[in-house]
Design goal:
InterPro entries: Alkaline_phosphatase_core_sf. This is N-sulphoglucosamine sulphohydrolase C-terminal domain-containing protein. It comes from Blautia hansenii DSM 20583. The structure is a single chain. The chain is an all-alpha fold. It has one domain. The protein contains 1 helix and no strands. The longest helix is centred in the C-terminal third of the chain and has 17 residues. The chain is elongated and about 35 Å long.
Length: about 40
C-alpha cells in the first residue's frame, strides 16, 4: 500500500494475514523457475 507506506520498507512476509499470498507467490516463482529451467 503506497499510501500507508510509500517507501515500502516494512517486510510483511511473516505477517499472518499474508500467508495465502506468500504461498501463491512461492508456487508461482517455483513454476516459473521450472518452466524456464532456471533452478540453478
Amino acid at each position: 500500500d503506497l499510501q500507508e507506506e510509500p517507501q515500502e520498507m516494512k517486510n510483511l512476509i511473516n505477517e499472518p494475514g499474508y500467508d495465502e499470498i506468500r504461498k501463491r507467490l512461492h508456487e508461482a516463482i517455483l513454476n516459473h523457475m521450472y518452466n524456464t529451467r532456471d533452478w540453478k
